[in-house]
Design goal:
Blueprint (H helix, E strand, L loop, with lengths): L1 E4 L2 H10 L3 E7 L11 E6 L8 E4 L6 E4 L1
Antiparallel strand pairs: 1-5, 2-3, 3-4
Length: 67
């Protein structure tokens, strides 16, 4: 999938790690937020194995998901 940064945080993440990300896992709830899911665990497709993040598949505050 392609991620586009909406906030400064999102734009920095895309600039540092690239805009192509792979879906690793999905879930309806995450411990750190009361926002409804589904949530996606994504990691960049650039060789940075340790970098990953949870995003909401719709209405994420930092990213727009372009599939």
């Amino acid at each position: 999938m392609i991620l586009k940064g909406k906030t400064q945080k999102g734009k920095n993440r895309v600039r540092e790690l690239g805009n192509q990300w792979a879906l690793v896992r999905t879930t309806d709830r995450v411990q750190f937020s009361s926002e409804p899911g589904p949530w996606w665990l994504v990691k960049p497709i650039n060789g940075f194995e340790k970098d990953s993040r949870w995003i909401r598949n719709t209405h994420d505050k930092d990213f727009e998901v372009i599939i």
